[in-house]
Amino acid sequence: MKVSGTEQETSEQWLEAANTYYECKLYAEALTAFVRFMQHGTATSVVYIRMGETLFHLEYYEEALMAYEQAIQLDAANAYPVNCRGNVLYRLGRYERACLSYERAIRLDPRQAIFHYNRGLALAGLEHYEEALAAFQMAVRLDPHDANAYNGAGNCLYKLQRYELALIAYEEATYLDLNQATFHYNRGKVLVFLDRYEEALVAFEQVIQLQPADVQAHICRAEVFYTIQSYAEAIAAYQEALRIEPENAEIYQKLGFTLHRFNRPQEAMAAYERAIQLDPLFTSVYVNMGHVFYDLENYYEALVAYKQALQLDPFNAEAYYGKGNILREIACEREAYDAYTRAVQIDPLCAPARFWREQMQLRLKIPDKGRRAVVPKQRVTRQRPPSLMPVHTPKRIRFFPALFSFDSRAHRAFE
User: Fewer CB within 10 Å of terminal CB in the chain, N or C?
Assistant: First the structure.
């Protein structure tokens, strides 16, 4: 861009160019124009605010923070740059300072719903969910049509395990904005915790309709199918997820687990092997491979798999439990007892390990204090334990996405 004329005209032209570039979302060019303006003119609070927004979009957060500080010094009564400073601090993970900044913005202008919403996000980042809930509720009172505020309240209620109330909040959010996939996803998540699986499936299917490439929605849908024992549908859902992310080791692990449960051990093993290729340090895959080998009565391979799992994680109770099963099958009962004991020490709630430890203790006539007894000469008939798969299947589906994410609305100018 060529600029000519007097120094004042030049500075005005650079400022006009910077604003034009910003409106066109050409942030790098806008930043260059702002810098050139600074060389010729005197910046006002408004200029520093726009420069801070430009730096924010370019993810130059420390520089954006300095620009907003300059804007606040020039106009201390303006709540907007104070709110924007909070946004930068939030992005930097400095939630306490962000919260203080939002509180100052609220004191300057308490009727702006977005300030209360942003404060709720910062409080949620600090895991102060009761206070965050109050902030989101205030945002809703100021703007009853703010779907994101209802969603934020739902997230807090979910974290506080008030699932029925969380569902109401999410349903209000989806009613206000049917095209926001996040709201449907969160609604599906809480429906799972309420054991309303069919409705949860509908919610996750709505997410997929809005965002067909949302791999997490496919995974959650598969997990719901698994929970209601619709294994064929679960397998199909995992395969669909793999079409989106073919290099995702976790999906292969989940697929293998489901295939094993569906009595397709060879396919399960192929899925586990692919998971190991993608992530050689995936401990639970080795454990699950051990379970498959056990069911196929390939005891040596099972022991090798459990050993690999324990090398990666010496405190894996399930691997010790599986190892104990193998050792018991091959009549190494003292060693089996030791493996079960170790599993119980690591995880006292591992009921199958406790059961077989007690059985081994009776067979070996080991006193309660653990003194070693002579192994009986007469061999006891071996019994297979209950199926491994249901024992270690959690009742609840585990979800891993972040509940609270930065909302681009939080950086907009208020009217």
Answer: C
